Amino acid sequence: MDDHYFACLDLNGRDCLVVGGGTVGHEKVSGLLASGARVTVVAPEISEEVAALPVELLRREYRASDLDGHRLVIAATSVEEVNRRVFADAEERNLFCNVADVPELCSFILPAVHRQGPVVVAISTGGASPALAQWLRDRFASQIGVEHESLARELRRLRPWAKKNLGTYEERRDYFRNLVTQALG
Q1: pLDDT computed for residue 91 by the predictor
Q2: Alpha carbon 12 to chain centroid distance?
Q3: pTM to 2 decimal places
Q4: 48-83 b/e with 16+ CB inside 10 Å = b?
Q5: Can you tell me the distance from the alpha carbon of 171 to that of 173, in angstroms, rounded to the nearest whole number?
Q6: What tens digit of pLDDT does each residue of 76-91 get?
Q7: Does residue 81 contact residue 25 with C-beta atoms inside 8 Å?
Q8: Average pLDDT, stretch 42-51?
Q9: pLDDT tens-digit profile of 141-172?
Q10: Residue 88 CB: number of other CB atoms within 10 A?
Q11: CA 42, CA 183: separation in Å to the nearest integer?
């Protein structure tokens, strides 16, 4: 599917669930933690790497009630039956759900992400090829330097002033475009 609506979710301080405590679960938990989410992991077996993360651990089988109170869920188990159940339960509750490496069981997909301060590069192939998305991410990320990170921080600092002093969206857009052009050529 290539018709996704792309958005950046504010998960800071919000509850998210990861079903699965292995290597893939670790990757998904790490991404959620990087965005400030509060993460609960449920799995009968949880790796030492996952257990070492600042998450709530439920060392048992998944239950539909585990979804209660969460903003989104990621199923990262190697058991297709469990992943399908997590997705079906999430759909019943209108929760966004990602089943790792099964695009047809996802109400959202995860891009390949590189973070450098406030600058974030996210590349997606619409679920077609995570390997290609990761390759492209690395290619673009290598072009982001400390000057871009510093500029992003400075532009963020100027946003309240621009909002107060420049009356329209177009004036603010043009003001910031000019600043970026001046700074980066």
Answers
A1: 97
A2: 11
A3: 0.86
A4: eebeebebeebeeebeeebbeebebbbbbbeeeebb
A5: 5
A6: 999 999 999 999 999 9
A7: no
A8: 98
A9: 999 999 999 999 999 999 999 999 999 999 99
A10: 12
A11: 47
Query: Is the pLDDT score of 103 beyond 80?
Result: yes
Q: Tell me the domains of the chain and their CATH numbers.
A: 15-110 (3.40.50.720), 146-184 (no CATH)
For the ranges 2-6, 54-58, 129-133, the lowest mean pLDDT is seen at 2-6
Strand partners, 123: 112
Instruction: Count how many residues are written for the chain.
Output: 185
Q: Helix (H, G, I), strand (E, B), or coil: what is residue 13?
A: coil
β-bridge mates for residue 75, sequence order: 19, 99
Residue 1 reports pLDDT greater than 80: no
For 99-105, which contacts have Cβ atoms below 8 Å and span 24 or more sequence positions? 99/74, 99/75, 100/20, 100/24, 100/28, 100/74, 100/75, 100/76, 101/24, 101/130, 103/1, 103/127, 105/75
Residue 148 token pair: 């871009």
Shortest CA distance to 95 belongs to which of 62, 63, 67? 67
Residue 56's pLDDT band, with cuts at 50, 70 and 90, is: very high
Q: For residues 63 and 45, what is the distance between their CA atoms, to the nearest angstrom? A: 15
Closest CA to 73 of 43, 52, 116: 43
Encoded amino acid at 3, one letter = D
